[in-house]
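Long-time lurker. I teach an intro course on protein structure, and each term I like to show students one example going from raw sequence to a predicted 3D structure in token notation. This year I'd like something fresh instead of my usual example. Would anyone be willing to generate the tokens for the chain below so I can use it in lecture? Attribution to the forum is fine with me.
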Amino acid sequence: MDLKGKAVLVTGASQGLGKALMGHFARRGARVVGVARHAQPMEAVAESLRAEGLEAHGLAYDVGDKESIYRLVGVAASLVGPVDVLVHNASTLGPTPLPLLLDTACEDLQRVLEVNLVGPFRLSKAVVGNMVVRGGGLVVTITSDAAVASYPRWGAYSVSKSALEHLGRIWAAELEGTGVHFLSVDPGEMDTRMHADAIPDADRATLARPEDVAARIVTLVERPLPPSGSRLEASRLEAA
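-- Reply from a regular --
Happy to contribute to a lecture. Here you go:
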């Protein structure tokens, strides 16, 4: 995909991998909209990119809020046009320190699923129909090894990511031949606030930099894509 002039929507974009993805997409010539819950840090990210002469916009919406989704998509489209690339990056761990499933409140599980699974489903529904009409588009889901491995205390997050991956595979199967592509990318362990919240005593020197992971993901988007529905590991992707 030639990203010049493409409309890209990235959720969870005020920090970490989402922030890095915004920058890499914008520097490739894309028209980028970032979304996060808090307006000030999100707008600061967009403003820093505009200071480089790039097209970037920041919106404050909660992807776990049903009422926000169509407003979010409508505002994004008014700024950059119909979305060509949608990146589901926003997610939550739930309460930390991470509890055992027996100690997980039903309300906490529900919130994790709303943000990590139901929100991306709603957002995909709001965007993908237009992609089908236009004959092409790409949806990238940021997943985790917790989607395929059973780690104690990661229950709510793991369940949400496992379901989100399979959701992408079902989208891919149902929309085969439409030109709309679905990929799941496991970024690996990164030096982010979320990782620090989950594993505060981790050795940061062993963790991947979000900027490096973002560069690999954007390079993936620019090159011939693997089959729709594929699950990829960022560490195995070709570097920029």
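Some talking points for your students: The two ends are 15 Å apart (CA to CA). The beta strands are 7-11, 31-36, 56-60, 85-88, 137-142, 180-186, 230-233.
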